[in-house]
Amino acid sequence: MGDPVQLKDEGNKHFQAGDIDKAIECYSSAIKVCPDKKMLAVIYRNRSACYLKKEKYNNAASDASKAIDVDAADIKALYRRCQALEKLGKLDMAFKDVQRCATLEPKNRTFLETLRRLGAEIQAKLKTTFSTDSRVQNMFDILLDEEMGKENKEKAANNLIVLAREDAGAERIFQNNGVPLLLNLIATGKPEMILAAVRTLSGMCTGHKARAMAILHMVGVDKLCSVMAIDDEEIALAACNLFQCINDSLTGGDKREYGKEEALVLDASKDLKTILLSLLEMVASKKVSGHGRDQALNLLSKNVPRKIRKEKDNSRTLFTIDHGLKKILKVCGQVPELPDQLPLTENTQLIASVLLNKLYDDLTCDPERANFKDICEEYIKSKIDPKDMDKTIHAVNTISGLLQGPFDVGNALVGHQGIMEMMVALCGSERDVDQMVAVEALIHSSSKMSRASFFITNGVSLLKDIYKKTKNERIKIRALVGLCKLGSAGGDDYSLRQFAEGSTEKLAKQCRKWLCNPQIDTKTRKWAIEGLAYLTNDADVKDDFVEDELALKAMFELAKSKDKTILYAVACTLINCTNSYDKKEIIPELVQLAKFSKQHVPEQHPKDKKDFIEQRVKRLLKAGVTSALAVMVKADNSILTEQTKEMLARVFLALSENPRDRGTIVAEGGGKALIPLALEGTEAGKVKASHALAKIASISNPEIAFPGERVYEVIRPLVSLLHTDRDGKQNYEALRGLTNLAGFSEKLRVKIVKESALPDIESYMFEQHDQLRQAATECMCNLVTCKEVQERFLQDGNDRLKLLVLLCGEDDEGLQTAAAGALAMLTAVQKKLCTKLTTVTLQWLEILQRLCLHHNPQIQHRGIVIVYNMLNSDDSELAKKLIESEMLEILSVIGKAEDSPKRQEALDAARTCLVKAMDLGLIKPFTNTS
After folding, report:
1. SS (H, E, C) 859-911
2. For the whole model, what pTM was predicted?
3. What's phi and psi for 235, nearest 5 deg?
């Protein structure tokens, strides 16, 4: 063994001579035999210098660290580690080491220079790291790295999606070879990668015509269709959204000015036509999954028919009918129980029926409608083949689809010779699937009273026979629904019962039994609700149903399931249970006249009276109806038709009738669910939803009822209820709702003003109806803190201020409170109004004195505050006029009164007025003489 000191000295000589390898050899030998820690630290530090020369930076940093472990203030070791770390690219760690060196030797120029240089390099690196270009590249590197962890990949995917939603970020991704890289992500075949890529492309295509067109050409319509065809609901939905973003950008959704770049934006009509043809191809392709087919149908449903009927051009609809109607009919006719059928979801056939209905509604003349019917008739005839039962039931199922869509077309086809006979023949078939399809077609075809009457005569025995004989539960339940439908043909007219007393209750009991049986598949249980949708026209049935909490909960669970074809039946059942359908007003004189002329007079069931309805509403709320409705509102747009939306809005309105129930509705998400119903749908549906919103908004905390930004969306529906074509109750509830919102925040007040609500609110302040006038004045009281509202009162040539003053003189205390409150706030913030107040009416002083003498402490306090504002208005003549009047005596009497908790605010305000009068020199303080 050698001497460590001697070995160290030899190493130093070799180092000075430039023989670095020999020096490392000596230092390494010395380290092995050195027992002294301090000496060992020196040797490690020296070997670190050797490794720096040899550019072995990891070894250099390691040796320097070992020296620092012994002596944290070893300045040479710190600097050598700094140099090694810098070369390794660990700038932040190197910076810390040199910072420590500079602290130990603050005047050392080498340390200070290194410190400055490293600081600048770190800043430059940070700038590069956080630049959009670098971020984009880093995200793609992470996503395409096979060894990268799942958490990092998810984070990178989300960052990419967020970045693409901003125009600058989307452009950066596009410019940095983003589209080919996104195609690489899709090519991985991993669902999470495909989803990230498609969502990023959606962001890039949103609101930018040129970029959307470029991406469409780079990716290709076929590629996008193949992604949407994947059997994954989330991917299909994301691809559908991408197509929609492209369509919106290409059809003029992008309103920005491009300047010179406008020349690059080519005509998009060819691309739009290609997309339309590709979607039609997807509709009937076996290679497309059920989810993909649903989204293709949804896109057609949303983008083909005209959005505004006033537009004359319906060429896209005509093109779709010519090139794709038979393909849509093919989807309607699919029978999943047969082999070699198209992949479908539970919702596909209903979405196809909705699309057929929209296309038919979009036609503008009889020849166009005749062509639609001819194509349908030709298709049905081509499928009827007595020798091929599978083709025949395909034809019958297609008619079922038409009966659920453009009913007139389906009804005309059912009326053709041989069709009805064929349906009846299928009911007697030995194959279960034939019976099932035939019974469904019979059910759908008896939607009109006249046809139902025909079936009551001819079809009841047939359905009863099937119901009794079949052992297949799925056919049995459909036959039962047919009987239910026929039994309810008279609607809620108590006098028009089709079946014997108690028969409908027995049918309903069987439906509830099936509904509550979890062993039966969802599609079959759906038919139990269909049956109840008809039977609940009978008040005895609906009353029994709402008492069966298990059946209610089973229905609500099904309403939340993926099978959205159930929505309409659930909505119908709830409409019946809450009696929220439109009822014609029965005029007693006309009833007498009808009886005299022996005409039929509808009768109301005793259980359809108000107290029974209220009890049913309470039971529905207890069973969780609101959460079910909230889920139903979020359903696929095509299945959630405008008619269904209207029914849901009617149910919500019925549920929110009692103020005590509104808290439950809010707690289960009813407030949020009502907003889309109030903004889209039929005119009647929007009004009903807006009215329900107004009821909730009038008594709820807006932050809880409509969390986040949703609260701003509530204002427009409420303002829409202020129009004169709405009834007084709707006007009143809307005003109360706006009052509550206006008292919540300045942002909401500004939003109310922006929605042009002020003229309507002001007009109701002139209303003869006391409650409406009070509600409007209370709303204005909460709005006057808004500058734009104050400016309206400052304008000349109107009676706004005069009206407020006169309303303060009314006998109604609620009205006085609101008007006086508004006047108190206005005169506090706008001193000019204090003087203007004296010019609008000669009665101003008398009204003000009445306010100050009022027995209601709230009104009295507001009156005295107005007086104080006038004294504080910088108008010395006005102040003098007030003090010279009886007002001084009124203020003195109030000010001298004993303190009282009930009237303390008024007493303090009066005393403040007297102090102000003294400050102005209008009265002198009372002094005792000795």
Report:
1. HHHHHHHHHHHHHCCCCHHHHHHHHHCCHHHHHHHHHHCCCCCCCHHHHHHHH
2. 0.74
3. -65, -45
Residue 66 burial class via C-beta count within 10 angstroms: exposed 0-12, middle 13-18, buried 19 and up: middle
Residue with the two structure tokens 């008040």: 539
- What b/e sequence results for 266-291 when a residue is b if at least 16 CB atoms lie within 10 Å of its CB, and e otherwise? eebeebbeebbebbbbbbbbeebbbb
User: In this structure, how many other beta carbons lie within 10 angstroms of the beta carbon of residue 900?
Assistant: 10
- Give the closest residue to 101 by CA, choosing from 73, 126, 125, 121: 73
Do residues 794 and 833 touch, judged by C-beta distance below 8 A? yes
Cα 271 from chain centroid? 31
What is the longest distance spanned by two Cα atoms in the chain?
134
- Is residue 743 pLDDT above 80, yes or no? yes
Nearest residue to 300 via CA among 343, 257, 352, 252: 352
354 near 643, Cβ under 8 Å?
no
User: For residues 23 and 14, what is the distance between their CA atoms, to the nearest angstrom?
Assistant: 5
**Alpha carbon distance 917, 269 (integer Å):** 77
CB atoms within 10 A of CB 377: 14
pLDDT at residue number 490: 46
What's 4-107's CATH class?
A: mainly alpha
Distance in angstroms (rounded) separating the CA atoms of residues 91 and 127: 14
Contacts of residue 733, Cβ cutoff 8 Å, sequence gap at least 6: 691, 694, 695, 698, 721
Closest CA to 807 of 820, 789, 794: 820
141 vs 132, more confident: 141
CA distances from 405 to 103, 392, 638, 685, 756 (A): 82, 20, 12, 20, 39
Task: Count CA within 13 A, CB hemisphere, residue 196.
Answer: 27
Q: At what angle do helices 473-487 and 503-515 cross, to 10 degrees?
A: 140
Name the nearest CA neighbour of 568 among 478, 647, 680, 675.
Answer: 647
pLDDT category at 276 given cuts 50, 70, 90 is very high
Nearest CA to 379 among 362, 399, 353, 364?
399
And the tokens for 6? 């001697």
Specify the long-range contacts of residues 557-562, CB closer than 8 Å, at least 24 apart: 558/515, 558/522, 558/525, 558/526, 558/529, 559/628, 559/631, 559/632, 560/627, 560/628, 560/631, 560/632, 561/522, 562/345, 562/346, 562/347
The C-alpha angle with vertex 368 and arms to 362 and 370, in degrees rounded to 5, equals 120
In whole angstroms, how far apart are CA 771 and each of 161, 739, 767, 912? 52, 14, 9, 34
Whole-number Å distance between alpha carbons of 864 and 887: 10
Residue 853: which residues within 8 A CB-CB, separation 6 or more? 860, 890
Q: 708 exposed, middle or buried (CB, 10 Å; 0-12, 13-18, 19+)?
A: exposed
Tell me how far apart the alpha carbons of residues 303 and 321 are, in angstroms, rounded to a whole number.
14
Backbone φ and ψ of 471, nearest 5°: -100, -5
Spatial distance between the Cα atoms of 277 and 320, rounded to a whole number of angstroms: 8
Q: Count H helices and E strands in the chain, helices first.
A: 54, 0
| pLDDT per residue as tens digits for the range 410-422 | 888 887 877 877 8
Residues 308, 611: Cα–Cα separation, whole Å: 43
Q: How far apart are CA 192 and CA 143, in angstroms?
A: 10
Q: Give me the sign of the Cα torsion angle 390, 396, 401, 406.
A: positive
With CA atoms as reference, report the closest residue to 299 among 243, 246, 353. Answer: 243
How far is it, in rounded angstroms, from Cα 173 to Cα 132? 8
